[in-house]
Design a protein that fits this description.
5-stranded antiparallel β-sheet, elongated, disordered N terminus
Length: about 525
C-alpha cells in the first residue's frame, strides 16, 4: 500500500511555519538503513555442507567393511524396487541378480537422476503456456495504486481572510484483467514447442537409461570372464606345480638335465605373477559397477554371486523391420521430436504476423471521505499489430527453413545409423559364434594333445619341451575361448541396445528422492 505525503496540519489563527528541510546527509542515512534492513530480511546465509565421505580409502579387495552390501537383496530395505514394468532384454539371460542390479542402477544412477530432473524442469518453464489460464492476467492498475490516505492542506492567512484549511480522506481500489485470445494459434504453438523440449529431454533420459543398462550388463560379464581367467590361471599354477615336482623327481633319477628344472620353475613363476593382475582387474571392474549403481565405489567382489558363470548365448531376439526402429529406439524418437519442434516454431512465426487480440477490463472504486463513492468500470478489446519490426520475423522465418532442412537430414542420418548398428551387431555376432565353435574344438583337441604328451614324457620316450609346448598351447586356447565367449555376449548386448525398446519410458517416471 502506498500513500501520498501527509502535509502538516495548520491550527486556526496560527501562522503557517515552514518546516525546515532535512539535511541530505540524514536522508541518505535513512535510505541506506532502509535498504540494509530490506537486504537483511531477504538475503539468507548460504552454507553448503559437503557430501558424506568414507573415513578412509579402500584398497584391500579381500577385507570388505562390515557395512558393505554383498548384493542388492542383502540391503537393509530388501531388494530394490523394480523400475521397469514391461519386458526387458536382459531377462533373456535368466539371472535374477543381474536384473536386480540393473533395476538398482536405473533408479539410483546419478547421471539418470540428473537428466530425469531436467524433464520436470522443462515442464515447469514459466515462459511456456501451461493451459487456458496462462494468458489471463489480473492485477492492480499501474499508475493508480490502491490505498487509503489522510490529506491535510493549509496555507498562510491573507488579511482580512482566515487561514485556508482543507482536510479529507481518500480511498481507491481497482483491478484490471486481460485475456489474450489465441485465434491464430500462437500460444498453442508456444505450448507445443515447450512440450517438444520436455519430450526431447525425456528421450535423452531414455537414451541414458538404455546406455546404463548396457554398461551394467557389460561390466557384469567382464567380471565373470575375469573370474574365469583367475580360476583358469590358478588351475594352471597347480598343474605347473605338479609338473615341477615330476621334473624334480626325474632330475633326481638323472633322467632330465637341470636345465629342464629351471625352465619349469621359470614357467611356474611367470604364471603365478598373473594372478594378482587378474585380481586387480576384478577389483577395478567392481568399483566401476558399484559406481554405476549410485553407491560408493568399492573393489570387493561380493556383488555378483560366486556361483555365476558366463552364460550361453540366449535365443536370438525378434528383429522386426528397419522401419520399426523409428518407434523403438530413443535416438530416432529424439531426432523426430527435433524436427517437430522446428515445425511448431514455424507455426509460431507465421502466427506472429497476425494481430494480437486481448479482451481487457477494469473495475474500481474511488471515494473521498467515504461519501458517495465513485465507481468505474471498463471492458473492451485491445488489438496489437506490429506491422514493422526491422525484419526480425523475416530473418527468423528464413533461419527456421534452414534449421528444418538440417534437422530432417539429421533424422535421416539417425535412421541409417540405427540400421547400421543392428546390422553390424548381427554380423559380428554370427562371425564370433563361428570363431567360438572353432576355438572350443581346438580346446578339446589341445586337452587330448597334453594328455598324450604327458604320457610319452612319463614313459621316457620324449623330452620335456613337448609337454611344455602342449601346456602353453592349451592355456592360450582356453583363454582365447573365454574371451571369444565374452565377445559373443558383448555383441548380443550391443544388438539388444541397437534394437532399443519402450521399457525405458518407465525409468523417466521414477521420482527422485
Amino acid at each position: 500500500m502506498s500513500s501520498a505525503p501527509l502535509l502538516h496540519e495548520v491550527r486556526p489563527g496560527a501562522r503557517a511555519r515552514k518546516r525546515p528541510a532535512r539535511r541530505p546527509r540524514r536522508a541518505a542515512r535513512w535510505v541506506a538503513s532502509l535498504c540494509l534492513f530490506g537486504a537483511c530480511s531477504t538475503v539468507r546465509p548460504v552454507n553448503v555442507p559437503p557430501p558424506a565421505a568414507p573415513s578412509a580409502f579402500v584398497a584391500d579387495a579381500a577385507a570388505p567393511p562390515v557395512a558393505e552390501r554383498a548384493s542388492p537383496s542383502d540391503s537393509p530395505g530388501g531388494a530394490p524396487e523394480r523400475v521397469t514394468q514391461h519386458e526387458v532384454w536382459w531377462t533373456a539371460f535368466a539371472d535374477p541378480e543381474l536384473d536386480s542390479v540393473i533395476q538398482e542402477a536405473l533408479r539410483n544412477n546419478y547421471l539418470l537422476r540428473d537428466v530425469r530432473t531436467l524433464i520436470r524442469e522443462n515442464k515447469l518453464d514459466p515462459t511456456v503456456p501451461q493451459g487456458w489460464w496462462w494468458p489471463l492476467q489480473i492485477g492492480i492498475p499501474a499508475g493508480t495504486p490502491a490505498g487509503i490516505q489522510r490529506v491535510a492542506l493549509g496555507s498562510a492567512p491573507l488579511p482580512p481572510s482566515d487561514p485556508l484549511q482543507l482536510r479529507y480522506t481518500s480511498a481507491n481500489i481497482g483491478v484490471t484483467a486481460s485475456y489474450q485470445l489465441d485465434l491464430w494459434g500462437n500460444l498453442e504453438a508456444q505450448r507445443r514447442v515447450g512440450v517438444d523440449f520436455s519430450e526431447q529431454q525425456r528421450q535423452s533420459t531414455e537414451i541414458q537409461a538404455q546406455n546404463v543398462a548396457e554398461q551394467v550388463a557389460q561390466l557384469w560379464f567382464d567380471i565373470l570372464v575375469e573370474r574365469a581367467l583367475k580360476e583358469l590361471t590358478e588351475n594352471e599354477v597347480k598343474h605347473n606345480q605338479m609338473l615341477l615336482e615330476l621334473v624334480k623327481a626325474r632330475f633326481d633319477q638323472h633322467l632330465v638335465p637341470r636345465l629342464v628344472v629351471l625352465q619349469q620353475e621359470q614357467q611356474l613363476l611367470a604364471i603365478q605373477a598373473q594372478v594378482p593382475l587378474v585380481v586387480a582387474r576384478i577389483s577395478v571392474l567392481n568399483s566401476q559397477l558399484t559406481a554405476l549403481l549410485g553407491r560408493l565405489p568399492a573393489p570387493h567382489d561380493l556383488l555378483i554371486p560366486a556361483d555365476r558363470r558366463l552364460p550361453d548365448l540366449p535365443p536370438a531376439p525378434a528383429l522386426g523391420a528397419p522401419s520399426d526402429l523409428t518407434q523403438h529406439t530413443p535416438e530416432l524418437r529424439f531426432a523426430k521430436l527435433r524436427v517437430t519442434e522446428i515445425e511448431n516454431r514455424v507455426n509460431q512465426n507465421l502466427s506472429s504476423w497476425l494481430p494480437t487480440i486481448e479482451v481487457v477490463g477494469r473495475a474500481g472504486i474511488i471515494s473521498y471521505s467515504f461519501d458517495e463513492p465513485l465507481r468505474e468500470s471498463f471492458a473492451g478489446i485491445r488489438l496489437t499489430w506490429p506491422l514493422f519490426d526491422g525484419g526480425r520475423r523475416i530473418s527468423e522465418s528464413q533461419l527456421l527453413k534452414l534449421t528444418l532442412k538440417r534437422r530432417k537430414w539429421q533424422y535421416d542420418l539417425a535412421l541409417k545409423t540405427a540400421v547400421g548398428r543392428v546390422q553390424d551387431a548381427l554380423l559380428q555376432e554370427r562371425s564370433q559364434a563361428e570363431s567360438l565353435r572353432s576355438l572350443r574344438e581346438q580346446v578339446a583337441l589341445g586337452q587330448v594333445l597334453l594328455e598324450e604328451a604327458q604320457k610319452i614324457f612319463e614313459a621316457g620316450r620324449s623330452d620335456y619341451l613337448s609337454v611344455l609346448t602342449a601346456l602353453a598351447n592349451l592355456s592360450g586356447l582356453q583363454r582365447s575361448a573365454l574371451r571369444a565367449q565374452r565377445l559373443l555376449l558383448s555383441y548380443r548386448v550391443q544388438l539388444y541396445r541397437a534394437l532399443g525398446g519402450d521399457w525405458s519410458y518407465a525409468v523417466t517416471e521414477v521420482q527422485n528422492e
